[in-house]
Amino acid sequence: MRFLHLSDIHFADFDGSPDTDLEGAVRGRMLEDIRTMTELRGNSDAILVVGDVAAKGTQTEYEVAAKFLDRVCELAGVAPDRVACVPGNHDVDRTAQGPLHAAARYQLRGVEAPSISDTLLRLLQDDEGAQTILRPLRAYNDFALRYGCSLSESSLLWKPKVLSLGDRKLRLHGITSAWISDASDSPEKDELKNVVGLFQLAQVADEPNTISVALCHHPLRWIRDAELVKPWLSRAQIVLTGHEHAPGIEVSPDGTSIWIASGAVNPVRTQAGWIPAYNLIELESVGELLDVRVYARSWQRERAEFGPDTSSGRPASHRLRLARLPGEQRDSDMAPSDHRVPPAGMAVVPPEPEPFVSDERQMVYRVMRASPDARRRAARELNLLPPNSEDMDGLEMDRELLRRALEEGTLAALDERIRNA
Question: How far apart are CA 402 and CA 367, in angstroms?
Answer without folding.
Answer: 9
